[in-house]
Specification:
single chain; 205 residues; alpha+beta; seven-stranded mixed β-sheet; 6 helices; globular
């Protein structure tokens, strides 16, 4: 399956749901491929859905630049030197709705620190996505990824098999944590604080 082969028309909610399901299938295939080639003993799972990568195995995040929901553009490279929390989501995703208050709380907690939150809105339409962000008071920027290019660029490096999924990226640009499924403010806070305490360790390589 090729992500670029999805139907271009996405105006109806039914089309969005069909396309979202296709994204999940494609990402699931990438997950299986990634598991087959992953070096044994290089990662350690802290809890179901959460994986922390060792300094030796932490993959480098791809260079990503894209359009933001609303207006403007963002390059992840501009956040170099900060811990970046990157959340993949969609307004059609019920679990994304469940975790949104926790993401909002965590972003508020770290608003004055060296942490930057960024969303990646996948398989969505702009109007629904912008309404989602307003309703849940998500103040941080979110990249609009209707063509799944950003999602695919990350999935080629680190398989992400479900929505929502969240990555914690070190100040040095390494992916040090992957969370598949909903985050909790408490768990995410602990992971961010660990990354802030050990910036050299977490960005080595």
């Amino acid at each position: 399956m090729v992500l670029a082969s999805f139907l271009a028309a996405r105006t109806s909610s039914a089309q969005v749901r069909v396309r979202a399901a296709a994204v999940l299938v494609a990402w699931g295939a990438l997950l299986l491929a990634g598991c087959a080639s992953a070096p044994a003993g290089k990662v350690s799972a802290l809890s179901p859905g959460t994986t922390v990568f060792t300094p030796a195995s932490a993959p480098r995040a791809p260079r990503v630049t894209g359009e933001l929901l609303g207006s403007g553009r963002l390059s992840l490279a501009s956040y170099r030197g900060h811990v970046v929390v990157l959340n993949f989501w969609g307004s059609w995703c019920t679990v994304c709705r469940a975790e949104a208050p926790d993401l909002s709380a965590a972003a508020q907690r770290f608003r004055t620190s060296a942490v930057r939150f960024v969303g990646v809105d996948v398989a969505d339409n702009a109007a629904s996505a912008e309404a989602f962000m307003r309703n849940f008071r998500l103040k941080y920027p979110s990249l609009f990824d209707p063509g799944d290019k950003i999602a695919l660029s990350f999935s080629r490096i680190i398989p992400v098999s479900a929505f929502p999924s969240t990555l914690v990226i070190s100040p040095g640009g390494r992916i040090i944590v992957r969370i598949i499924g909903a985050v909790s403010a408490r768990n995410l806070t602990k992971l961010i604080e660990a990354a802030l305490r050990h910036p050299t360790h977490s960005s080595s390589g």
